[in-house]
Design brief:
Layout (H helix, E strand, L loop, with lengths): L1 E6 L2 H13 L4 E6 L9 E2 L7 H10 L4 E4 L2 H5 L2 H7 L4 E2 L3 H8 L1 H11 L6 E4 L2 H10 L4 E5 L8 E4 L2 H13 L10 E5 L4 E9 L4 E3 L4 E2 L2 E3 L3 E4 L4 E4 L6 H21 L6 E9 L5 E7 L7 H4 L3 E3 L1 H10 L7 E2 L3 E8 L23 E5 L2 E3 L5 E3 L3 E9 L2 H14 L13 H8 L1
Parallel strand pairs: 1-2, 1-4, 2-3, 4-5
Antiparallel strand pairs: 6-9, 7-8, 7-9, 10-11, 10-16, 12-15, 13-14, 15-20, 16-17, 18-19, 20-24, 21-24, 22-23
Length: 425
């Protein structure tokens, strides 16, 4: 098939490699792609949010399936524009993508569908929001309702921290339009889990579940980021729990979106907090593959990925995929200064003698005119290892991540610490 993957980060590199592995006969285009996709794909110099040029490119290259990676083009209606031009697309239209692009909308959908989530209130004015914070139990969570590149949620231990977060969003517009509407919600106790459901709007096929690490520093400290590492599968994602997630979270949400005239086709990502009593509470929904979760779940898919995405896009019955009996761990390497002000242009050295089973996914890199690889974003690389055991994958990923060099490199050295604790009991 001729495939077009939209996006230029680690998620899109992982998608391209997974689809190429699934069928080496695919001709894969990536827009804009990155130095990691260039060796085996045709990179197109088109921004992921350039709707008109992407539609023209899909026609010019006779693309048979478009897979949209990032949330921004989905929120802007790329899938709608492509479908309107007669192209097959894996990804929701703008109306359904609001499940991610508006946290206020997402909360309303969950309330209507009876999906378990934290109690919350939505505000568009500063003073009422501050008044609500002043009487809210500690800790609490303040979220920019719109898209904020994974950094719009602030866990506040005290009301003073919450007042600062609200003021930053509504008063100082730290996130621009994304923070013009703010959600203030109850802090949930438990363990996080990312569940990915490929869907044709009604039917569901679950991919391996993962656990992301959002904080910059070891011990889950430091500022929130887009994700500093992940692993899959996760021991707490048992069959009974996933059945409950499908029954209480995924199916009711899909049904409510359809009832609202916004059927969801693509991958619905449920970011969950699993309470001590086992209740799966939704922290957030995303309308696309996670990043860096894609870099651990996609390498675990052994076969059937292309057929699954095509069937979902066509609205046909979903085939099953085959998954490796293995584990995957990814360690994200971030630029100096990330997440506040990431350094760019630092020379990257990736050794040729990486451990077996390791793949280095490019996220924020570019190649200079002389061929030098340099940093060009906050999260630079995702170093993923696949091994028969979690411990083996962790050891290989961590060792490989240490081998990569660039000025100011930041990385966590405790990815999967909860899994290690479980296994040591």
């Amino acid at each position: 098939m001729k495939l077009l993957i939209v996006g230029g980060g680690g998620r899109e590199h992982a998608l391209a490699l997974a689809l190429a592995t699934d069928d080496p006969g695919h001709e894969i285009f990536v827009a804009p792609g990155n130095p990691g996709t260039a060796p085996f794909c045709a990179n197109l110099s088109i921004a992921a949010d350039d709707i008109e040029r992407l539609v023209r490119a899909a026609s010019a290259h006779s693309i048979e399936l478009v897979v949209v990676g990032p949330e921004v083009p989905l929120a802007l209606g790329l899938a709608d524009a492509l479908r309107g031009a007669g192209h097959l697309v894996f990804g929701p239209g703008a109306a359904a993508a609001r499940i991610e692009s508006s946290k206020a909308f997402s909360k309303d959908v969950m309330a209507s569908a009876g999906v378990p989530t934290a109690a919350s209130e939505v505000f568009t004015a500063l003073q009422p929001a501050l008044a609500h914070v002043d009487v809210h139990p500690e800790p609490l969570v303040v979220k920019a309702s719109g898209l904020a590149a994974g950094k719009g949620a602030v866990v506040c231990i005290t009301r003073a921290e919450a007042r600062a977060a609200v003021t930053s969003m509504l008063g100082e517009r730290a996130f621009g339009e994304a923070g013009d509407e703010v959600v203030i919600e109850t802090f949930l106790q438990g363990e996080e889990l990312s569940v990915f459901a490929v869907t044709n709007g009604t039917e569901i096929r679950l991919l391996p579940s993962a656990q992301d690490h959002k904080r910059l520093l070891d011990g889950d400290t430091g500022p929130n980021t887009g994700g500093m590492g992940a692993y899959a599968p996760v021991a707490i994602a048992t069959g009974p729990l996933l059945d409950r997630v499908e029954r209480e979270v995924l199916r009711p949400t899909l049904a409510e979106l359809s009832r609202r005239g916004a059927p969801f086709v693509g991958v619905l990502y449920a970011g969950l907090m699993i309470a001590p009593d086992g209740t799966p509470n939704v922290i957030e929904f995303n309308c696309r593959f996670g990043d860096p979760e894609a870099e651990v779940i996609l390498p675990l898919v052994k076969s059937g990925l292309t057929a699954l995405l095509v069937a979902a896009a066509r609205g046909e019955p979903l085939p099953r995929i085959e998954v490796h009996e293995a584990a995957a761990v990814t360690v994200v390497l971030a630029a100096g200064g990330y997440p506040e002000a990431a350094s760019r242009g630092d020379v990257i050295t990736i050794p040729d003698d990486m451990p077996d089973g390791v793949t280095v996914f490019h996220a924020g890199t570019r190649t200079e005119a002389d061929g030098t690889l340099v940093t060009s974003g906050g999260r630079v690389l995702a170093v993923t290892a696949v091994a028969p055991t979690f411990e083996g994958a962790l050891e290989r990923s961590s060792a490989a991540a240490e081998m990569v060099e660039f000025e100011g490199k930041q990385m966590r050295r405790d990815i999967g610490w909860r899994e290690l604790e479980r296994r040591s009991r």
